Recover the amino acids of this structure.
């Protein structure tokens, strides 16, 4: 082939591959929605028969056995999973699945419909209703089955569950990532950093930026012994870059470490530099050991000014600075940021989540464990 023909052929091949992948993605989403619809309907049928016939939970093991015998090629009908189907229906009894064919009616009392949240079909853009007691069909049918199971089994509070469900859909969390984020209670930390965004960014942009920052950040994947240096922290984060990016949140793209800026014949180095794909701006991260100090804000203001001047494109939003410290005084941080003209946030970071005081006080100390072991050895 001639060069022009080869280029045209590669373009054609690329277009076909893109369309195949898009079709595969749509097929996967459709298959997942149909599976969720089926499991919910099975739960609905079982609940209706239990209510009408007075059957107890004993019917489920028999169903699991008979389904395995009658449909040996079908997976997913274990006793445990059928119980999950029933629970899924009881959690969302008023679900209206976007089915190709209408579901046959099932006689149910009003009790179930009154005691649980509504799920109604809505456009994909309206993922979660403004009412804390509802969930959109786009959200319900866009999440894989086992993600639903984790959400139901680990989170009783519905608004919190809906928040995590939407994060799964928006950020593409795997099951393991979802479980870790729930364990680390990320919903309590999101949007709680000290910032000056309300005075340095347009209102809509400020709200989005504020919602993306956490406080504290949890780096429990690091194993650093106290005392450690900032460079050791930086190295550890980059050695676990994927987990670090997950903790930062959706949209962060890594640009560089110890990123060099030249100003007036002097070199300055940024600890970490990111670009946020949704905010359309650079994000400078400065890592600090110990307490937050007011002078950190002035230094970050300088960094943001230089990045805006040297790296920012005309279409980019203003650069954001994020100062991560082990601890901070919120009032001190608010004063330090008050008259700064660049958008900056201050947040803590933790290497491990602290145990609740009630639990920590009930655990034995190292001395207690050593004494107990010594006593047992003497008894032996």
């Amino acid at each position: 082939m001639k060069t022009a023909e080869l280029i045209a052929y590669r373009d054609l091949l690329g277009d076909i591959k893109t369309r195949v992948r898009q079709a595969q993605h749509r097929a996967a989403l459709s298959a997942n929605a149909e599976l969720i619809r089926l499991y919910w309907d099975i739960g609905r049928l079982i609940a209706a028969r239990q209510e009408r016939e007075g059957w107890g939970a004993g019917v489920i093991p028999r169903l699991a056995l008979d389904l395995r015998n009658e449909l040996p090629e079908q997976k997913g009908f274990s006793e445990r999973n059928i119980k999950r189907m029933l629970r899924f229906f009881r959690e969302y009894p008023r679900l209206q699945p976007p089915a190709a064919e209408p579901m046959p009616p099932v006689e149910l009392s009003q009790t179930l419909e009154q005691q649980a949240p509504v799920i109604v079909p809505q456009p994909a853009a309206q993922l979660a209703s403004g009412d804390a007691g509802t969930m959109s069909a786009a959200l319900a049918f866009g999440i894989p089955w086992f993600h639903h199971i984790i959400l139901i089994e680990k989170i009783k509070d519905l608004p919190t569950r809906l928040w995590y469900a939407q994060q799964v859909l928006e950020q593409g969390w795997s099951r393991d990532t979802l479980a870790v984020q729930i364990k680390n209670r990320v919903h309590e930390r999101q949007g709680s950093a000290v910032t000056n965004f309300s005075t340095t960014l347009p209102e809509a942009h400020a709200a989005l930026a504020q919602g993306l920052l956490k406080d504290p950040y949890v780096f429990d994947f690091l194993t650093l012994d106290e005392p450690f240096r900032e460079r050791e922290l930086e190295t550890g984060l980059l050695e676990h870059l994927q987990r670090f990016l997950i903790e930062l949140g959706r949209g962060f793209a890594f640009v560089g470490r110890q990123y060099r800026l030249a100003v007036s014949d002097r070199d300055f180095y940024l600890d970490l530099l990111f670009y946020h794909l949704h905010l359309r701006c650079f994000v400078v991260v400065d890592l600090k050991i110990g307490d937050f100090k007011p002078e950190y804000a002035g230094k970050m203001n300088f960094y943001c000014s230089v990045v805006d001047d040297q790296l920012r494109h005309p279409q980019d939003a203003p650069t954001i600075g994020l100062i991560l410290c082990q601890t901070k005084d919120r009032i001190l941080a608010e004063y330090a940021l008050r008259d700064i003209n660049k958008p900056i946030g201050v947040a803590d970071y933790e290497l491990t989540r602290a145990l609740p005081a009630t639990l920590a006080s009930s655990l034995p100390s190292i001395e207690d464990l050593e004494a107990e072991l010594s006593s047992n050895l003497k008894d032996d």
Summary: The CA atoms of residues 138 and 275 lie 29 Å apart.
